[in-house]
Specification:
Layout: E1 2-6, H1 14-28, E2 32-37, H2 43-48, E3 52-55, H3 69-79, E4 83-86, H4 89-99, E5 109-114, E6 132-135, H5 138-147, E7 157-158, H6 178-185, E8 193-198, H7 207-217, E9 224-229, H8 237-249, E10 256-260, H9 265-271, E11 272-277, H10 287-294, E12 299-302, H11 305-314, E13 319-320, H12 325-337, H13 350-366
Parallel strand pairs: 1-2, 1-4, 2-3, 4-5, 5-6, 6-7, 8-9, 8-11, 9-10, 11-12, 12-13
Helix pairs in contact: 1-13, 3-4, 7-12, 10-11
């Protein structure tokens, strides 16, 4: 197969990571992988792993982006892909407009992956208009069925995002001297049990709940250290300052380590006593949950949205009711006293994601084009 994936850019994020993961798997399986985006720092990695990248400005939420429809249609005719796979709304609109006038019996099959719980409007509806929609969780599938049933040509197929078990594994070797180097950078972590909350700094990601929990726990547990791993976006720097101020106000400024953005998250999972996902509003998926599970680390999270689905499959004993600080505190105490290991359920591996996605492609190619009008 020749597969073209389309997304706004290749810088960082879950959509970008999913694109690279699938591209790598396609190449490994002997298929031809092409990615169209406006470019970014991950292009070099994509190409080094055997895919071709084509740069087009398919990222701007502007009417001027419609100027890309004809060039995109020319590219589709030139490359003659078997599959067009869109992963974001602007590229999805441009691709759909380029694809729709093509001969239904000769054009590629059109697939979308719904990575989020998109706002309900005509602009977002494009993610449901593909011939087959992939939902990254039951939460996303149910959201699509509730809000976009009239746009769907077929029921969304749930294919969870997956962990690369070659990268996230208890058997993967640690970088040389990683622990000592990290303790040199953050000496307060030495001889402490790390309670780790990974994720970008955002008001709904639960960092405030986490700091309050550490404040309640630390008087009886002198051996714990809270670790908030993640950076703030440029327009959220003030929230980072608020979190530091909250820790100081509660008297735990020395019991909370703010690491900023890190590229070595696997090792933090490996050395943590507990990992948390405390998002307060439904998220489409919980990547930190499955990454921590792949490392065998116990996880605590609110019972809401996609992260709760992952937790139910990998470590159900870590679920707590959304926004209940008493349960959060009690669950932490229990798992500190009675350590347990999580496990990665097989449906959350990159191998499963790739195999199921390629099977979906092949099934579409074996079918006649759908005749339902848009």
């Amino acid at each position: 197969m020749r597969v073209i994936q389309l997304l706004p850019a290749l810088n960082s994020g879950g959509v970008e990571r999913g694109t690279l993961d699938l591209a790598r798997a396609l190449v490994h399986a002997g298929h031809e992988s092409v990615v169209i985006s406006s470019g970014g720092r991950l292009v070099q990695q994509l190409e080094s792993e055997g895919s071709r990248h084509i740069t087009l400005p398919v990222h701007r939420k502007s009417l001027l982006s419609l100027l890309q429809v004809r060039p995109l249609r020319r590219l589709i005719r030139e490359l003659q892909p078997d599959i067009l796979h869109v992963r974001s709304r602007v590229p999805a609109w441009l691709t759909w407009l380029a694809w729709k006038p093509l001969d239904p019996h000769a054009r590629p099959r059109l697939v979308s992956t719904a990575h989020g719980l998109y706002s309900v409007n005509r602009y977002s509806a494009i993610m449901a208009k593909a011939e087959q929609v992939i939902a990254i969780s039951d939460c996303v599938r149910d959201y699509l069925l509730t809000n976009y049933a009239s746009d769907l040509r077929a029921a969304p197929e749930v294919i969870y995002r997956g962990v690369d078990t070659a990268e996230f594994s208890v058997d993967a070797p640690s970088p040389v001297n990683w622990l000592e180097t990290t303790l040199g950078e953050f000496p307060e972590l030495r001889d402490r049990r790390w309670l780790l909350l990974p994720g970008r700094l955002s008001r709904w990601k639960g960092q405030e709940d986490f700091i309050r929990m550490i404040a309640a726990l630390s008087p009886q547990r002198p051996d714990i250290q809270g670790v908030i791993l993640g950076g703030a976006e440029k327009n959220k720097a003030h929230f980072a300052e608020e979190l530091h101020a909250l820790a100081a106000e509660l008297g735990v400024a020395d019991r909370i380590t703010f690491t900023g953005h890190r590229g070595d998250i696997r090792e933090w999972y490996r050395h943590a006593a507990l990992v948390y996902n405390l998002s307060k509003k439904p998220e489409p998926f919980g990547r930190t949950v499955i990454e921590a599970a792949a490392m065998g680390t116990p996880i605590i999270g609110y019972d809401i949205g996609g992260p709760a689905e992952s937790l139910r499959a990998c470590f159900p004993q870590g679920l707590v009711a959304n926004g209940h600080p008493d349960q959060l505190l009690e669950k932490t105490r229990t798992l500190l006293d009675q350590p347990q290991s999580s496990h990665l359920a097989p449906e959350f591996t990159l191998d499963t994601l790739a195999r199921r996605t390629m099977a979906l492609y092949e099934r579409l190619l074996a079918q006649r084009p759908l005749d339902k009008p848009s």
